[in-house]
Sequence to fold (291 residues):
Amino acid sequence: MSAATPRIVYLNGDYLPEAEARVSIFDRGFLMADGVYEVTSVLGGKLLDFAGHFVRLNRSLSELDMPPLSMTEAELLAIHRALVEKNAITDGMVYLQVTRGNPGDRSFEFPDPATPLTVVLFTQSKPGLADNPQARTGLRVISIPDIRWHRRDIKTVQLLYPSMGKMMAKKAGVDDAWFVEDGFVTEGTSNNAYIVKNGKIITRHLTNDILHGITRAAVLRFAREAQMEVEERAFTLDEAKAADEAFITSASAFVLPVVEIDGVAIGAGEPGRVVPRLREIYLEESRKSAV
Ligand code: PDD
Fold:
């Protein structure tokens, strides 16, 4: 953003130019990574899958014994919409983060539940978000061990290892990394992972081992509605390398083909037939239901 048009962000009830939004150094998010987040995509000025993100946010808060948000779904939606409007976002994302707030000092113990949560939202403008050239070329990924904690179903801001994973991928000259645990793929650094074999879409079942992707839920629903076969189970790295197609999903990437894993070409080494179709269906249906 240029200095002439500072980005307007939301902090605890106020809309402020980004430079004026300040959070305490004692905030639990800063000191303890004690916070959760959501990323909601914006296409054509409208929010995709907002209801799903709201449900998951509340679940993340409750799993961490954080007090519930003091606002309704309609109120949170109004804040998202206000930020989209104030920052003239056509395509992009709204990032939301809620932390356990500022207890006034550093302590491992959770503060008094009456401590107000810190609620921050900001927008990221990404013109042409849905026209990502990677949809045509596909992504190349490496596999790395999944050494994250075992509550990956909670969308916390502890993103150090995923960041390191992205850097390992960059160093290896590829686009991203897939996490592997006991020989099985869990998910991507910031996305859910899938393979396609003999027309069947295979993706890991929902447990605490992976984030329950909002895009995943929508894509699987659309796939089933389009009479595609879906199997929710863990798949091995070897199975992935021998798959016909592979892909990832996330709120910001939607559906993107994966054409290479650890230097091994997947299928013909270029996007196949199933994944581009899924991307098309997802974008079409999500735009229709955007709010
Ligand atoms: N990442 N798995 C992980 C580890 C993720 O971080 C994400 C999302 C997903 C996909 O979830 P969803 O479809 O609800 O976006 C799966 C977001 C986009 C991010 O960190 O930017």
User: Anything to note?
Assistant: DSSP finds eight helices and 15 strands in the chain. Residues 39, 187, 190-192, 211, 213-216, 249-252 surround N-(5'-phosphopyridoxyl)-D-alanine (CB under 6 Å). Residues 11 and 120 are 5 Å apart (CA to CA). The radius of gyration is 19 Å.
